[in-house]
TrEMBL record:
Keywords: ATP-binding, Nucleotide-binding, Transport
CDD domains on file: ABC_DR_subfamily_A
Organism superkingdom: Bacteria
Species: Anaerotignum lactatifermentans
Domain named ABC transporter: residues: 4-226
Name of this chain's protein: ABC transporter ATP-binding protein
Keyword Transcription regulation attributed: no
Length: 230
């Protein structure tokens, strides 16, 4: 059974078709880069996988079952925008996550937050955008999920912190979990990808192991990305 099996997925916003017969199968134990230019449909696809968009045609199976309560319990999702309440601090947010997710590792979350020099008593609303994004990632990665869906986890953070975050992502990842990660920072992130999925015209244009891609094209993933979307 595949971790993710998508067949003939179609989604439109009004008259605007974004996903047009997309097929994608992913197995467990991989870090997958979901790549493509602005507006190609990465966030839309992630929201469908995570059950936030329910209006679509086609079939989406997570661990063999349709998207629903079961799939939500094994997916940890980092949305493109943070969703903390501004008045809470790290401690109270940890309490909320603990109540919400049975697989949330509170100790790990606090350790990672301290590693990132976040102050557990500071109100989240007074943290900078980058700090809030780091915190959100810490929480999302502190679940023992089977599939992590990370929408642009590095968007707002400084280059030094990117390395810590990549390290965090790698260290939380186990052989029977997978990570689907979208980013425009292909050069910075390609070292951690096992597989790259390129979207184009509402479909999967390419789904290949990154090592094979590099060997076959003689290019880095970043160079190949620029070629494809030139
Ligand atoms: N709520 C919405 N209503 C109407 N159109 C939308 C909505 N959300 C997204 N779209 C459109 O759907 C298309 C795909 O958007 P989506 O956010 O999935 O792309 P993306 O690949 O994640 O882009 P980016 O890399 O810029 O984040 C875009 O043309 C966008 O304008």
């Amino acid at each position: 059974m595949s971790l993710l099996e998508i067949k003939n997925l179609e989604h439109r916003y009004g008259n605007h078709t974004v996903l047009a017969g997309l097929h994608l199968t992913l197995e467990e134990g991989e870090i997958i880069g979901l790549l493509g230019p602005n507006g190609v449909g990465k966030t839309t696809l992630m929201k469908i996988i995570c059950g936030l968009i329910q209006t679509y045609d086609g079939s989406v199976l997570v661990n063999g079952a349709p998207v629903g309560i079961g799939s939500k319990s094994i997916i940890s999702y980092l949305p493109e925008r943070t969703y903390f309440r501004k008045s809470e601090n790290i401690r109270s947010a940890i309490g909320m996550f603990r109540d919400f997710y049975a697989d949330f590792d509170e100790k790990k979350a606090m350790e990672m937050a301290m590693d990132l020099n976040l102050d557990s008593k500071q109100k989240i609303g007074t943290m900078s955008k980058g700090m809030q994004e780091k915190l959100q990632l810490v929480f999302v990665m502190s679940r023992r999920a089977k599939l992590f869906v990370l929408d642009e986890p590095l968007g707002g953070v400084d280059p030094a912190t990117r390395d810590y975050i990549l390290h965090t992502i790698l260290s939380q990842y186990t052989e029977n979990s997978s990570i689907l990660l979208s980013t425009h920072l292909v050069h910075d992130v390609e070292q951690i990808f096992d597989r790259a999925v390129f979207l184009k015209n509402g479909r999967v244009f390419l789904n290949e192991q990154v090592d094979i891609l590099r060997a076959e094209t003689g290019m880095s993933l970043d160079q190949y990305f620029r070629e494809v979307y030139r």
